[in-house]
Amino acid sequence: MRNLVASGLPLIGLLFAFPTGATTITDPASLSPGFELIDFEDQTPGTKTSPLVIGDVTFSSEEGLSIVSLAAFGANGTEVEDLTLQPNDGPGIGPPYVTLTLDFAMPLKEVLLGWWDPNFVGNFLEAYDASGTLLEQASPELSAPGGGGAAWLGFVRPSADIAQLRVVPASTSDFYTIDNLHLVVPEPATGLLLGLGLGACAAKPRGLRAASRRRAESSR
Fold first, then answer.
1. What spatial distance separates the first Cα and last Cα of the chain, rounded to whole Å?
2. Are the C-beta atoms of 59 and 177 separated by less than 8 Å?
3. 61 within 8 A of 88, measured Cβ to Cβ
4. Which residues contact 21 (CB under 8 A, 6 or more apart)?
5. Are 50 and 31 in contact (CB under 8 A)?
6. Checking DSSP bridges between strand 65-69 and strand 46-48, what pairing results, if any?
7. Is the pLDDT of residue 130 over 60?
8. CATH 2.60.120 fits 20-185, yes or no
9. For 162-185, what is each residue's pLDDT tens digit?
10. pLDDT single digits (tens) 64-121
């Protein structure tokens, strides 16, 4: 047993030393380095066809989509800035406001977005896995009505299992848009390293068994 421990079995514990719980985050500094950013600044303002595909994200809403500018509002500048995505066909800013769905081409471990003007109790950001199971739910920090506030909101999960986000407003009259979507896509090398580590662990006992057989044969 001492030989097995010394020969690499502790590597299993190292490889599986992942966080055991998820975290709701409200700051880009909580994300891992190397995130991807969708800020809608390359989009033309006005009505968009739903679904709208940008990079590896598909955006959709039952009321259509539109790109609207927040340059005239006090919240403009950090969480949201200038061009943002609205969950209706616009073309101006106004209701009805419905659930905005974000589907990801690859499941994510970390995601964060800027939420403009969250001032109704009952707004939720929800994360789902590929089977439609609710993984996480959180509410943005409320701001005063009038368009002067915005909030960061997102999740960090123990593994890359976020296949979909839903931005769920409390009311169809609760103004909101999203902006500055941060995505952390797992590095392909992570899975490769895990596979190599487990392969090495599996190879060690086989090698020990082979050595034991050779010693037994030589002692006959």
1. 24
2. no
3. yes
4. 158
5. no
6. antiparallel
7. yes
8. yes
9. 999 999 999 999 999 999 999 998
10. 999 999 999 999 999 999 999 999 999 999 999 999 999 999 999 999 999 999 999 9
* Phi, psi (rounded to 5 degrees) for 6: -70, -25
| Torsion angle defined by CA atoms of residues 181, 164, 190 and 110, in that order, rounded to the nearest 10 degrees | 40
**DSSP bridge partners of 105:** none
Retrieve residue 155's tokens.
């999740």
Amino acid letter, residue 210: A
What's the CA dihedral at 155, 114, 147, 95 to 10 degrees? -80
**What residue spans define the domains of the chain?**
20-185
Alpha-carbon torsion, ordered 162, 121, 113, 63, to 10 deg: 80
Which run of H or E residues covers position 208? helix 188-218
- How many CA atoms lie less than 13 Å away from 129 in the CB half-sphere? 9
Phi first, then psi, for residue 202 (nearest 5°) are -70, -35
Q: What is the pTM of this model?
A: 0.78
The values of phi and psi at residue 23, to 5°, are -130, 135
Q: How many C-beta neighbours within 10 Å does residue 196 have?
A: 12
DSSP state of 61: -
Q: What integer pLDDT is reported at residue 150 of this predicted model?
A: 97
Query: Nearest 5°: phi and psi at 11?
Result: -60, -30
